[in-house]
Amino acid sequence: MNFGALAALLIFIAASVWLGTLAHRVVRRSSFVKGYFLGNRGLGAWAVALTATVQSGGTFMGFPSLVYSHGWIVLLWIGSYMAVPITGFMVLGKRLAHLSRQTGAITVPDLFRERFRSPGLGLIASLLIIFFMTAMMVAQFKAGANVMKIAWPGTDVLALSEENTGALDEAYYIGLAVFAATVVGYTLIGGFLAAVWTDLFQSVMMLLGVIVLLALILHQAGNPADATMTAMQNTGPSFAFGPGYSPNPEWQFLPFGLAFSFFCIWPFTGLASPSGVVRVMACKNTATLRRSIFLLSWYNLFIYVPLVIICVCGRSLIPTLPEGKSDEIIPRLAMLTTRGFWGGSFVAGLILAAPFGAIMATVSSYLVVIASGLVRDIYQRFFNPQASDQTIRRLSYATMIAVGLVAVALNIQPVAYLQAVVIFSGTTSAATLLVPLFMACYWRRATAAGTAAAMLVGAVVNIGCYVLGWSGFQQPIGEVTGIRPYFPLEVHPIVFAVGLSFLAGVLISLFTRPPPEEHVSRLFDAN
Amino acid sequence: MIIWLCCLIYSVTFCYFSGYLRSGDPGAPGLKFILGFPDWAFWGIVVPWVLCCLLSFWLAFRFIQDADLGEEKDEEAGL
Predict the structure, then answer these.
(1) Are the C-beta atoms of residues A59 and A423 closer than 8 Å to each other?
(2) Does the interface predicted TM-score (ipTM) exceed 0.85?
(3) Is there a contact between A111 and A122 (Cβ–Cβ < 8 Å)?
(4) Interface of B with A in 44-63 (CB under 8 A)
(5) What is the rounded CA–CA span in Å between residue A415 and residue A458?
(6) For B11-67, what is each residue's pLDDT tens digit?
(7) Among A210, A152, A188, A137, which Cα is nearest to A9's?
(8) Taking chain A, what is the end-to-end CA distance rounded to the nearest angstrom?
(9) How many CA atoms, within 13 angstroms, populate the side-chain half-sphere of residue A477?
(10) B79–A385: do the CB atoms touch at under 8 Å?
(11) What three-state secondary structure class fits A72?
(12) Which residue in A321, A317, A298 sits closest to A309, CA to CA?
């Protein structure tokens, strides 16, 4: 019976909830909306750096699953993360923080609405954001439930035998319920700050978890070079090279064009993620932004590279896993490497706190964005601008609970490959927001209509390619999963989506009436 | 802004080279490891990554200028 793991997770959850209640006190300091959705713009460097990232269940469940399945090449797949903090914060950071203060914007749709004086644009932004963020969030719930399932005492997960499935499924549903209740709970209590502070706490735990697991696994598997050789016995030589190992010889995981496009994806999606943008908007000052770049660069290095090592070695320790279960490689490795020594299962729980924390962090952040979208950008703007703080608060709580329930419902039959959904959501987010954010920050001549066009074209192209892929236009590249796009020219559709979005944005802006000079001047020229 | 472009191009090129190295080596013989990483991964990804971190130090503490982010507009007025 491995109660230790569960105990560790429960302590972790309790700490998060406590942080949520602390955040609640800060919220009371100013207007509800600003406090609840933006933390009164008081974020320091550690908060911005460690939480504005796309760290999520994807990082600890989806990504490792890919390394385990395909080998060393996944290091290239994730490689552009080296440039993410630099590009992300440097390119848009300062300007966004500045612009959001000038416009008083609290949410991303706010920003667009005020920048272009167009409620319609704000609405389009809201709807699109709510759509793709919900997709991402729903997938995270599954991951969270899985972690709890594996930690649950009595389910001898390492057995992998059929008769266990009954107990495992039950544990999954319990895990789902516990996870949902906790995250919705503390996010509801403390809003944006709760999400940020718990993110921060969880990020630190993640780093610790990864380092501990790395140490344990090197101890058990030995030198990564030897482990790779062992792993190759089970897979093949392509495990250590591009385009990566695939069980089906027709299928190539990462042909070069795809590698190139993924290299572009991470910096772009990092730049344009609504939860990331909101944190930049919430930072205290530019010194914060600068330090965040520095902190985040090292943090990413110490999370991703060890994870690759861990999973490559993992392949030598656990030679195969059934179809669809490779998402569980990190929790399984945690349990495996901690078996047999005293206190081992507690340590396993601590390691599991890493993926669990990542998942909780993502869900809480996204909950805040979605709730702010529904409550402020839609309700407060269009239905009841005079709504009292009291009403807004109640509505926000209700929205979060409702979204949580929807997410739980959609996870009764969970999605197979988490990482694929993460990428879908991330690329749609980038396709929708990247060009518009640039236009808002740097192009005076940009008009509301042009920006709207850019958003819509980007979203439609990316989603369209996914729909094509889903309905059967499959190519034998990339991940083996039902949620995959059609890859025009063997490159991820995001590249085309952003390109076309740019064209649309520029052309339509030039063809529509330029914005009033005094408005633009106020936002662009120094006072 | 230009810095960003440089960063992106520089990093992409790095991986181009590592890619080149790898695609010329489909078979197991010639697989060399440096610090546990396959050689292409080491030179193509790990090294540039560390370099980026060092670069970020320079950027964060030497290069980027602090700017006044400005006064906050009263949000009630915007509604």
Answers:
(1) no
(2) no
(3) no
(4) 44-46, 48-50, 52-53, 55-57, 59-61
(5) 25
(6) 666 666 665 555 544 444 556 676 777 766 676 677 777 877 787 777 777 666 666
(7) A152
(8) 67
(9) 19
(10) yes
(11) coil
(12) A317
